[in-house]
Inverse folding.
DNA sequence: GTTATTGCAAAGGCTTTGCATTACG
DNA sequence: CGTAATGCAAAGCCTTTGCAATAAC
């Protein structure tokens, strides 16, 4: 039926009304959104949704691999629904995030890691400012 | 005289007692420290130093280019006194930060940036976990 | 009917602010 | 002396938590 609902089910997540609205805002296409933006977007169709539910759901989606959390800087966190390997270009003044193809940087060779560690992820952030 | 004091002067920073203690903790060698760690370290020799002063001073040192602020994740920020180009390896469980040589990643070609933007910095974070 | 999910409001943690006091040149 | 820096406590912001009400299966 609804592909988003199926995606939630596939990830082992009960597709409640609130979660479906959050998924609609976030998972329909690759986007970068703050928690507040997600709340506002979800409230368009589900006005009663609470901050707590948004935060719970964002953490749940991250844990299930539907989202990535991206620490833009000390006080900006965005949730990224682009699942393909990619990096980020960030306007340091506005906080706007844009995707970069993962191409320019080689993958990490796991053998180069310190002994006893395994790779959990690589994050590349290119910060720019308007000239 | 004192090389750290001279460095502060060279950066256009009045070397007050508190700032000298913060510089001693942070700038004497390349380290990664949280604001709280800086406060504790500075209080060893300047017990009256306040959180507000530490935060003010960290922001000042960053603005003057003596430090870089590194957003490890949503709730971990460290200040990095390593000034040479380098990237970071982070234990996602402990938050421990280690430097990586900048080598494996080529420098960004400024011509590749979107028009109207200039490069402000590149951050590479390799996240690992204990196996 | 049970169990999971939600909403609310309060609590939390870290950072910033306002302002009087103190140190500095 | 005049300006800049500091300390304190309060305020802020975003996020999490506790718990009763609600919805899902």
């Amino acid at each position: 039926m609804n592909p988003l609902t199926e995606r939630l089910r596939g990830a082992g997540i009960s597709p409640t009304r609130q979660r479906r609205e959050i998924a609609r805002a976030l998972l329909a296409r690759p986007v970068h959104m703050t928690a507040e933006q997600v709340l506002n977007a979800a409230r368009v169709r589900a006005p009663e949704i609470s901050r707590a539910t948004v935060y719970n759901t964002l953490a749940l989606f991250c844990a299930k691999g539907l989202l990535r959390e991206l620490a833009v800087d000390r006080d900006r966190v965005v949730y990224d629904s682009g699942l393909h390997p990619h990096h980020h270009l960030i306007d340091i003044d506005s906080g706007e995030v844009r995707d970069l193809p993962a191409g320019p940087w080689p993958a990490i060779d796991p053998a180069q890691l310190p002994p006893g560690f395994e790779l959990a992820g690589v994050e590349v952030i290119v910060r720019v400012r308007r000239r």
Remarks:
- Helices of chain B lie at 3-10, 17-26, 35-45, 51-63.
- Chain B touches chain A at residues 69, 71-74, 77, 89, 91-92, 98, 104-106, 108, 112-114, 116-131 (CB under 8 Å).
- Residues 88 and 125 of chain B are 5 Å apart (CA to CA).
